[in-house]
Request: fold
Amino acid sequence: MVETTIEPLDKTINELRVSPAQHLHGDFVDAGVSGARGVRVREEQFLTMVGLRVPIGSPDRERLAKVLGTELPARCGEVAVGHDVAVLWLSPDEFLVISQNVAGSTLVSYLRAGASEDGVAVLDLSANRTTLRLEGASARAVLEKGCPLDLHPRAFAPGTAVATSIGRVPVLLWKVENDSYRILPRASYADFLGRWLIDAMAEFKVSGSG
Amino acid sequence: MILISCPDCGSRDETEFHYGGQAHVPYPEDPNALTDEEWGRYLFYRENTKGIFAERWVHSSGCRKWFNVLRDTVTYRIAAVYRTGEPRPTLDGGSQ
Reply:
C-alpha cells in the first residue's frame, strides 16, 4: 500500500519557479481588452497535471473512480469533475487529471494506490504543459482565427475539453464556462502561442473601447 | 480538405490526421525465413488502387489512435471508417 498523506501545494516553492509564459505576463495585461467585445488572457501557473493510462475494460477503472471521486470520462470531450480534480478525456485509454490544490506527488501516490493491474500508468506531467486562460465576449472569435474545430456552443458546450490545435500549436482546449477557455499548450510552445493570442486579440483593442 | 470521422473523436479536419498507407498488410510470421526479395515486397510493395482503397490513418493531434478507412482514391469520398483489428466492411452497392 502506498502511503497517501495530503500535502498542500508548497506556495513558497512556487514563488521561486518560473512558468513557461512568465515573461509574457506584462504583455498579457497590456493586450487585455475591456468593454462589450472584451477579451483577456492570463497564465494559470503550475496547475498539477497527472497523466493516467488505463486499459479499456480494466477493473482498475472503478478503483480509480473511487480515488478521483468521479467515473473516468467515457467519450471524447467529456470532463469529469471529482474531489479537487478534473479528469480530461484524451483517448479511450488515456486521461489527464488536473488539480489546482493537490500536489503532483500526492495525486500520483493516491492514484498509484488505486491501480493494481499491469498496463496502468500514472505519471506526474505537471511540467509538460502550462495553462493559458482566455476570457471575454470575444474569446471565441479569437480562437476561431486559428482553430479548425467548430467552436459554436451548439457543438462545443461548456465543460468540454478536446485535443486540437490553435495557430498550428497542438493544445488541449477546455471550455470551462461560456466565454472562458483554458488552453493547455506544451511548455515549449507557450511563448509562441502566447504571442499568437496577443496578436489575435489586437483587432478587438482597435475596434473596441480599448 | 477532407473531413475524416475518427471512431473515437468524431468528424475532424484532415490536418489533424496522418496517413499510414495501405491497411491489412500482415507482418510476416517468420521474417527470418524470408528471402531479400520477399522482405522487400513486404516493406515496399503496395497496391495502387484506383477506386475504393483500404488505408490506415492516425488521429495524431487528437486521440492518437490508428484506424482504417475505406476511401475512394478518385473522388476522395470516404465510404467507411472502422477500428484497427476489425475486418474490412463490405460495401453495399459495390465500389463506385
